Amino acid sequence: MKFRLIPVLMMILMTLPACAPKIKIFASPATDPLKEFVVEGEGAGKIALIHLRGFLSSQPKQGMLAAKPSQVQELVSALKLAEMDDEVKGVVLAIDSPGGTTTGSDVLYHEIMGFKTRTGKKVVVAMFDVAASGGYYAALPADWIMAHPTTITGSVGVVFMRPKLVGLMDKVGVDVEISKSGRDKDMGSPFRPTTQEEAALFQAIIDDFAARFHMLVAKHRKLSDADMKTVKTARVFTANQAKKIGLIDEVGYIQDAFAKARSLSGLPADCQVVSYRRDTYPNDNPYNTLDSVDPARMNLLGVDASFIMPPKAGFYYVWPQGLTQ
Prior knowledge:
By secondary structure, the chain is of the alpha/beta class.
């Protein structure tokens, strides 16, 4: 019987925060410095194209083939290069993300706001498939927000996700004994049902985080009371719906975002569009989202299996459906 319990116990451990299995034999982190590459244009002045994609977090990931910095680290590094280069007059931030952790999303917002305050350089957002929840949160500081005609955006709200193992543990006859210093020390425990008091405490936290998100939307987008009420439902919108309600400024393509950035920054139509990567990529273009492509640095032995695991317990500015895409 004890051998039958082993798979069950492994599954329980894998759903706990920080317990996802990670095989990191000879893992090599991506520490090469970012380099500038011209995507298009030959004229004077530069627009920096910076990509923000995937689940937004301050935690680095060990991918299947190579280590990757966190989205926060990557964005800050790219913004620093754009800030130090006097020829860069504006930034196009290409966002394709369903959001992420509350803190990761807020740090991204803070860093973009800081970049604008320090430099006075213009920021234009170009949304792709999804720019929802934390992905939209990070777009708020932009001087102009543009969405692709088929973008899904919005989801202005907070979700608290945590695994529950009570039913499974009852079936296999496994129990967990907890000793604690205060009544609420183990609130949110996956090993027992949530009490009404705990549910109220969690809702208060959710409401607090949501209020910050709503405050920032109101600050940057100047919506009517009726439109803000619709936004607070945390629903998602198509690009046309988002433009009508005031969440974005324009529906267009990446080239339209470049044109807007050039216009806001006072640059000529043939100015350079540059991107920051770690390695050369032949026949480069604006749709290249890779930041490192040197096959010699790819490492099959450094594997993070967390991508097949449920999200860790926590509060998220994220559109959950976007996590499955």
